[in-house]
Amino acid sequence: MEYGKYIVYLIKCAILGQTPENVPANLDLNKLYRLAKVHNVEVLVYSALKRVIEPEKLKEFEQSMQLALALDTNQNYYLEEVSEAFEENQIRFAVMKGFVIKPLYPSPEQRHSVDIDIFVDDENTDRVKEIMEELGFSVERFNHNIQDDAYSIGRFVHIEIHRTLISNKCSWDKACQKITQRLKVTDGYKYRSEMTLEDFYLYMIGHMAKHMKYSGMGIKMVVDVWVYLNKYRDLIDKALLDERLREAGLSAFNDNILKLVGYWFSDKSADDNIKNLSAYVISSGNYGTYKQLISTEMGENSEKQGGKMAYYLKTVFMPYREMCSKYGFLEKLPFLLPFMWVHRVVTAVLFRRKNVEAIKNRHDNVDAEYAKQIVDFKKSIGL
User: Fold this and answer.
1) How many CB atoms lie within 10 A of CB 47?
2) pLDDT digits (tens, 9 = 90+) for 157-187
3) pTM of the shown model
4) CA dist., res. 41 & res. 33, Å (int)
């Protein structure tokens, strides 16, 4: 049986509150659980399965649900604590991603979120770092030249503070970053802000496109689109949204995501391209696989002048902004860039030969035909 498609069916039942019909006689619950867990949708799947399968056969699913309940409780506690601290310190912020979507699901724990994602204007991130440390968070990373900073407390609560919404590697980054100029203050707050309905949808598609461009995206992201549209379709200004999707260059990708949503959840017909997209998403896990990532890199590189050698050179002689993310002092001392390139070469030759060899082998072993197919497929869906 096709376990991915069955997971999609069970998710549909869970969201709509329906009882699954005709449980397959050859259903391997262990295999189903493993695939659902890879996509972080095992709690959703459990919500449907428990209607038709005895509890003693669903112990792994039950354990995941209990963990999800505990995680959701902890995350909400610390999100409230951080929100109050930002308000007190007059820092504009906006909660993003999962903690906007969660309330739209039948139960919030059904929508698994690894991190709490919050946007903060970059000029405030130094103060935010101080606040997070005052609240007891550990700093996992902090750098003005990267997309986000990371903080953690305890074993399970992680918060990412985003200064940019997407990534400057994506052509739609600037259009999506304009969302931060259109944030509106949330009712009952002075500094907590939120995206408009149209902008949150644009951001959601831009975020999906980023993951799909570099590796892949999972079932959960597609479910988010379906759930969001079920709630807000009639309230969204479609003409305005279409204009912003066009500005970002994401119209074609969005059209294909909507076709996939229709194929999965409304039993609409699909052409081969959408069926290929469905299969790719199901095979991707939550954020794509390593094979997809490397194959995409090499497939795109093979189309450029220089082939693999160009890739190896780019790995060493990284662009200025990427070098700044590794060596923060270059922001103030850009003239040192050539010296740091030399430093990377010398360090690699003298101390990291095994790493260099591993990178070379990793890419040399990529199936060139598969890599080309991956790139052609992503172009066909608007990327």
Assistant:
1) 23
2) 999 999 999 987 899 999 999 999 999 999 9
3) 0.84
4) 9
Q: pLDDT tens digits for 229-281? A: 999 999 999 999 999 999 999 999 999 999 999 999 999 999 999 999 999 99
Q: Are strands 148-153 and 138-141 parallel, antiparallel or unpaired?
A: antiparallel
Tokens standing for 57?
């056969």
Q: Which two tokens stand for residue 37?
A: 């867990």
Which residues lie across from 193 on neighbouring strands? 94, 185
